[in-house]
Amino acid sequence: MQWTLVIPLKSLSRAKSRLTATAGDGLRPGLALAFAQDTVAAAVACPAVRDVAVVTDDALAGRELAALGARIVPDEPGEGLNAALRHGTAAVRDGRPAAPVAALNADLPALRPMELARALDRAAHFSRAFLPDAAGIGTTLLTASAGTELLPAFGAASRARHAASGAVELPLDGIDSVRQDVDTGEDLRAALALGVGPHTAKAAAPLLIAD
To answer: What pLDDT digit, counting tens, does each position of 64-90 carry?
Structure first.
């Protein structure tokens, strides 16, 4: 099965606010962009991915991610993460109604294409499935097969909400890079330990030097 990924990304000036204590407002927007660049680059390189749609109104992010091969969908609702995902999914299925879709976080800088393929291959056995984040509270991946609504419920405690909605939780083994999102300095250190992509490595270099 070939999936279309829908990746929401808020304005870089507002993204990753919980990283301010680690990176300050000077580095934080650049880190948010770098996370998204490494996420999109890995997703585009994944053999289970047909294409990638990024929902964003940030002009810089749109240009940079389009250059990596993503389709940019303007965030016309402007009403938060779940509205952006519903809008992006509708835009994808407007042209291909039977497309299997998967919502993926934009902050997975250690994402490995083959680990993402492994998670998506597992998801292909279910009408809806999800993957919890490394903390075990949130969600990094939510999938919906052809003809199935995505029904995103991201946000605090989304693991429990997606499970309650009937989505199947995927096995966690062998896909650590798909689960390691970055909201805090501790998350960033964990992602760096896994091995991040080149954009994040460059953007985080001043922080490593400061250490």
So the answer is: 999 999 999 999 989 999 999 999 999
For each of the domains in the chain, give its residue range(s) and CATH number, in order of start. 3-210 (3.90.550.10)
Predicted structure pTM score: 0.96
DSSP assignment of the chain equals --EEEEEE---TTTTTGGGHHHHHHHHHHHHHHHHHHHHHHHHHT-TTEEEEEEE---HHHHHHHHHTTPEEE---S-S-HHHHHHHHHHHHHHH-TT--EEEE-S--TT--HHHHHHHHHHHTTSSEEEEE-TTSSSEEEEEE-TT-------STTHHHHHHHTTPEEPP-TT-HHHH---SSHHHHHHHHHH---HHHHHHHHHHHHH-
Q: Per residue in 97-128, pLDDT tens?
A: 999 999 999 999 999 999 999 999 999 999 99
- Exposed, middle or buried, 190 (CB in 10 Å: 0-12/13-18/19+)? middle
